[in-house]
Amino acid sequence: MPSRTSTWPTGWPSFTPADNDLSDIFSKDLKASIIAEYGESVLYDAWVKTCTALAGVTARIQTLGIASIPILSYEEATSPNNEDVRSRMKAAGCFVIRGVIPTEVAAQEFEELQVFIAENKETVTGWPAKSVAIYHLYSSPTQLKLRTHPRQLTLQRSLNSLWRDTSCSPQELEAEYEPILYPDGFRIRAPGQEFLALGPHIDAGSLSRWADDEYRRTYEAILSGKPEDYDPYDMTHRKSANPGMFPSGPSSSVLRAFQGWTALTPCKPGEGGLMVVPDIKTATAYMILRPFFKAPEDGDWRDPEKWEIDGETGWFPGTYRWDSQLLSPASHPHLFLEDTLLSVPEMQPGDTVWWHADMCHAVEPTHNGRLPASVCYIPASPSTPSNLNYIRKHWKDLVAGNPPDDYKYLDGTGSELVLSKQNERKMKGALPLDALSAEGRRGLGEGV
């Protein structure tokens, strides 16, 4: 299968102005207030500059294809003096890092994970219920060992250091780079299993990016007419943002510098893996500006100068306050998602893939391989004040066997909130927490 989305999956939704909810006065007033704050001419200039730059970005991605996604060794990624590598990582906003966990170790952990599930099959739940792919488990032995592996900790510290924070001293910034080990789930996807629920999206909130004052200040340069000055790696305001200001289903409450997958099995493009748009600066600027413009009536949407300010509607394309930010070719045409949403390179057990918190990504809708495709969700998260508060509470939950705070309620149960009753400390084969390193336990919240 090609690395590009050669045909747009029929199960992925599209978003058009017809989706505008005329009764949503909040969104309409929010858009009007932002236009009034920054000014129509400033936003227009930012739009034209961004779309012009984006044309070059999308052309480059279409030319390079999967080569747009950097592939690095663990040693390259963790070298403190390799500025060329760090620049490539930051420019793409996504990358594969090989051999973070030794291949044989990761493969053995997958075998042990399957045994753990089988031994606790009466209590383990997941989604979808009839053919589970994503399990409601967060501290199985495999997850704890991979999450606290010393090479994971070193790598996450290095990834966190790609960010800056002008609100603190150099010593405080160094402390922020220490990783907290956010507890997330894992996936075992069977061959042939369809997965249409995770089309192109951006996590960490949707409407909150514009509605929350601190979150919006993260994108101040974009909205102020200088998208070229926008720094996607500045956490000065982002660390105080509230992505969850609107009630929603299970989602991360912490700032993840990078979301991450650690592979437990081999996975080639087309076998149910990750897809990304490998650009972070310009694609983000486009997503932030898109709600303020409407397409020309003559149908020539490619020319950004023909677009006009949309101050009349409350439509934020692909934005539903209870969901992630969603994208489609119809709602975000200048991204050319049919050509720029790429499958990540082939992964082997122990390899990892990472992507910026604002990156457009998706999960391949089909798995055309012959073997299960399994990954552990392990992000890189810095020790910001709010992150420390979260992980401090998590340690208490971990010791008690309770689900993490973000996953108290089971996912995939529709609009109904179903409280999880699983206690992972009481499961057969649970790993004693004192078997973990002191550094690993600290990352999980002990003594924080």
Automatic annotation (TrEMBL):
Pfam families found in the cross-reference section: Gig2-like
Taxonomic superkingdom: Eukaryota
Gene3D superfamilies, sorted: B-lactam Antibiotic, Isopenicillin N Synthase, Chain (2.60.120.330)
PANTHER family: DUF1479 DOMAIN PROTEIN (AFU_ORTHOLOGUE AFUA_5G09280), UNCHARACTERIZED PROTEIN YBIU-RELATED
Protein name: DUF1479-domain-containing protein
Organism: Coleophoma cylindrospora
